[in-house]
Design goal:
Blueprint: E1 2-10, E2 13-19, E3 24-28, H1 35-44, E4 62-69, H2 72-84, E5 94-101, E6 107-111, E7 114-116, H3 118-128, E8 129-132, H4 143-153, H5 157-178, H6 182-201, H7 208-238, H8 243-260, H9 262-292, H10 297-317, H11 321-387, E9 394-406, E10 409-418, E11 426-427, H12 434-447, E12 456-460, H13 468-481, E13 486-490, H14 494-498, E14 502-510, E15 515-521, H15 524-534, H16 540-556
Parallel strand pairs: 3-13, 3-14, 8-12, 12-13
Antiparallel strand pairs: 1-2, 1-4, 4-5, 5-6, 6-7, 9-10, 10-11, 14-15
Helix pairs in contact: 2-3, 5-11, 6-11, 7-9, 7-10, 8-9, 11-12, 12-13, 15-16
Pfam families: SMC_N
Organism: Methylacidiphilum caldifontis
Protein name: DNA repair protein RecN
C-alpha cells in the first residue's frame, strides 16, 4: 500500500504531504480545485511522461515521492525486478520511490536513494498502481494480464505450470537437435565410407613403397647388365669379325712368321695361345652368366603401375602411405561415432514427437479448462455490471488459437465489452467513455479481487453520468474492493464520499500573486459539512441527509 505521498513544486502545488489510509480513500473538492493534479503527480511514479510545463517554479526542481509497504506476490515481483537490475538497496517490503523533474526538463528516478532507469520505474509502477480513469494505461487492458487473471480466477496455476514445463522440455529437445544435422551427418558418413572403401581397395602394406623401389632398382639394373653381356658376347664370338675369329687369323699369320723366324714366331704363338685360352674362358663365363640372368617385363610393368598408383593416392590424400594407413583407423572411429550420432538423432526425434504430443495434450487440456473458467468469470462480471448501470450490456472473453504454442499455452484471449444492445463487442481499451471504462474496470476488479496482485487502485471519474441507486452500488463495490486493495477515489457524488474509510478534501487557495493546492483530511463535523455541500449546499436538510449517508455507509462497513 501507499503510506505517504509527498509533492513539491509541481503544477499548482508548492508542497504537499499526504498520509494515505488503508482501504477506501475518497478525495472531494470543488470543481477545478486540483483533485486530478494529485493523481497526475502520483502517475509520475508509474513512469508516465513528464513535461517541463508541469513545474510550478521553472527555476526549481519538482519532485514526487511515495513511501510504500508491500506484501505477497506484489512484493515478490518488485523485489525480483530490482534484483534483476542489480538494485541491492531494496531488501525489505518498505521502500521509497522518488522522481525529480529538473529545470532542464530531464528527470531522475530513485528507489531508496538508488538511481534507477525510467524503464525500471515503469515496470515497478505497473505492479503497484492501476489508474482507472480517462486515457490511462490500465493493467486489465493488457491481454497477457487478462490471461493471467483468468488462470488465477480458475485456480489453473498448476495446469499452466505443466504447460510451461512441457513447452520448455520440447524447446530443450529442439535446441539439442539443432546441434545435429541428419543431412550433414549422412553426407559425412557417406564421404567417410567412400574414403574407407578407397583405402581398403588399395590394400596398403606398411613399408611397401621401399620394397617396390628396391625391386624396381634391381629390375632396372638387370636390364643394363643384360645389355652389357649381350654386347660382350657379340664382341667375343658373335660379331663378324669377332675377337675369337680374329685370333684364328692371327694364329695362321704367326705360324707363317714362325717358319721365317722361329725365335719370334715361337714366342708370339705362345702368347697368342695364352690369350686365346683366356678369351675362350671369358666367353664361356659370359655365356654361363647370360644363361642365368632372369628378366620379367610383366613384373617390371606391374611394379611401375603400383608405384604410380601409390604416388597418386599420396597426392589425393596429401599424406604419406603410413599416414593413410593411420587415417584408415581414424575413419573407422569416425564412422562409428557418426553411427552413434545417427542413433541419437533418431532417439531425439522420438523424444521430440513424444514431447510435442504431451505439449499439445497439456495445452488442449488447459484451453478447455480456461474456456470453462471464462464462462463462470463472464457470468460473475455481467452480474456486477448490471448493478453498475449496465443492465443491457454484454461482456465476453474471446478465444483464438495461436499459430504456435507458447509457455502460456495455445490461447490468445481478450476481454470484450459492449455497453448497449446492438453495439459490437470491443476490446476494453476501445471503450469510448472514460466513465464507462472505469465502471467496467471496477466490475472486473471486484470479481477478480482475490487474484489481482496490484495493491493500489485509483478511480478517477468513475461517477461520471451515474447517480441514485447505481452510485450507491458503485460505492458499495468500492468498499468491498477496499478489503483487498488500497483505493484512491476522486468523486463528486456524496453517496460515494460517505463510503470512504478516510475522506480528504482538496482546496485551492488564491491571492493576487499565486494559486496553490492543499489537501486536508476531514473528519466528524468537517466531513459532514463537505458531504452536505456535495448534496447541493450546506443547510439543515442536506446535513441530515449527509448524516444518514454516513450512517448507512458505516453500517455497511
Amino acid at each position: 500500500m501507499l503510506l505517504k505521498l509527498r509533492i513539491e513544486n509541481l503544477a499548482l502545488i508548492d508542497e504537499l504531504e499526504w498520509s494515505v489510509a488503508p482501504g477506501l480513500n475518497v478525495l472531494t473538492g470543488e470543481t477545478g480545485a486540483g483533485k486530478s493534479i494529485i493523481i497526475d503527480c502520483l502517475k509520475l511514479l508509474t513512469g508516465e511522461k513528464s513535461l517541463l510545463s508541469f513545474l510550478k517554479n521553472k527555476e526549481k526542481t519538482g519532485l514526487v515521492e511515495g513511501e510504500f509497504q508491500l506484501s505477497g506476490e506484489c512484493w515478490e515481483r518488485v523485489s525480483r525486478l530490482c534484483q534483476e537490475r542489480g538494485i541491492e538497496e531494496v531488501d525489505n517490503p518498505f521502500f521509497v520511490l522518488r522522481r525529480e523533474i529538473r529545470p532542464t526538463g530531464s528527470t531522475r528516478q530513485f528507489i531508496n536513494g538508488a538511481l534507477i532507469p525510467l524503464s525500471l520505474l515503469k515496470e515497478i509502477g505497473e505492479n503497484l498502481i492501476d489508474v482507472l480513469g480517462p486515457h490511462d494505461h490500465q493493467s486489465l487492458f493488457d491481454k497477457k494480464i487478462q490471461l493471467k487473471l483468468l488462470d488465477s480466477f480458475g485456480g489453473l496455476e498448476q495446469h499452466v505450470l505443466r504447460v510451461k514445463n512441457a513447452y520448455e522440455n520440447y524447446q530443450k529437445l529442439l535446441k539439442k537437435k539443432e546441434s545435429f544435422s541428419l543431412e550433414e551427418l549422412l553426407k559425412k558418413k557417406q564421404d567417410l565410407n567412400r574414403k574407407l572403401f578407397e583405402i581398403n581397395a588399395a590394400n596398403l602394406v606398411s613399408g611397401e613403397e621401399n620394397e617396390i623401389d628396391n625391386k624396381l632398382n634391381l629390375a632396372r639394373a638387370g636390364w643394363k647388365l643384360c645389355d652389357c653381356i649381350t654386347q660382350l658376347r657379340s664382341i667375343l664370338s658373335q660379331n663378324n669379325p669377332s675377337i675369337l675369329s680374329s685370333l684364328s687369323t692371327l694364329h695362321k699369320l704367326l705360324c707363317t712368321a714362325e717358319k721365317i723366324d722361329p725365335q719370334f714366331g715361337s714366342q708370339a704363338i705362345s702368347l697368342e695361345q695364352s690369350a686365346n685360352r683366356d678369351l675362350l674362358e671369358l666367353d664361356r663365363l659370359v655365356e654361363d652368366y647370360f644363361s642365368r640372368i632372369e628378366i620379367d617385363p610383366d613384373e617390371l610393368e606391374k611394379l611401375e603401375q603400383r608405384k604410380n598408383f601409390l604416388q597418386n593416392l599420396k597426392r589425393k590424400f596429401a599424406l604419406s602411405i603410413e599416414e593413410i594407413i593411420q587415417l584408415k583407423n581414424q575413419i573407422i572411429d569416425e564412422i562409428a561415432q557418426a553411427e552413434k550420432e545417427e542413433k541419437l538423432i533418431q532417439s531425439l526425434n522420438q523424444e521430440e514427437n513424444l514431447a510435442k504430443e504431451n505439449l499439445l495434450k497439456e495445452a488442449s487440456l488447459l484451453s478447455m479448462m480456461r474456456k470453462k473458467t471464462a464462462q463462470t468469470l463472464t457470468s460473475s462480471i455481467q452480474k456486477v455490471l448490471k448493478s453498475l448501470g449496465f443492465a443491457q450490456s454484454d461482456f465476453s472473453i474471446s478465444f483464438e488459437k495461436k499459430d504456435k504454442i507458447s509457455p502460456s499455452g495455445q490461447d490468445d484471449i481478450e476481454f470484450l465489452f459492449s455497453p448497449n444492445p446492438g453495439m459490437p463487442l470491443k476490446p476494453l481499451k476501445e471503450i469510448a467513455s472514460s466513465g464507462e471504462a472505469a465502471r467496467v474496470m471496477l466490475a472486473l476488479k471486484t470479481v477478480l479481487a482475490t487474484v489481482d496482485p496490484i495493491p493500489i487502485l485509483v478511480f478517477d471519474e468513475i461517477d461520471a453520468n451515474i447517480g441514485g441507486e447505481i452510485a450507491w452500488n458503485v460505492s458499495a463495490l468500492l468498499r468491498e474492493l477496499s478489503a483487498r486493495h488500497q483505493i484512491l477515489c476522486i468523486t463528486h457524488l456524496p453517496s460515494m464520499a460517505a463510503g470512504g474509510n478516510a475522506h480528504f478534501k482538496v482546496l485551492k487557495e488564491q491571492d493576487e500573486k499565486s494559486t496553490r493546492v492543499l489537501l486536508k483530511e476531514i473528519v466528524a463535523e468537517d466531513r459532514l459539512r463537505e458531504i452536505a455541500r456535495m448534496l447541493g449546499g450546506v443547510n439543515e436538510e442536506s446535513v441530515r441527509l449527509a448524516q444518514r449517508l454516513l450512517l448507512s455507509a458505516t453500517k455497511e462497513n
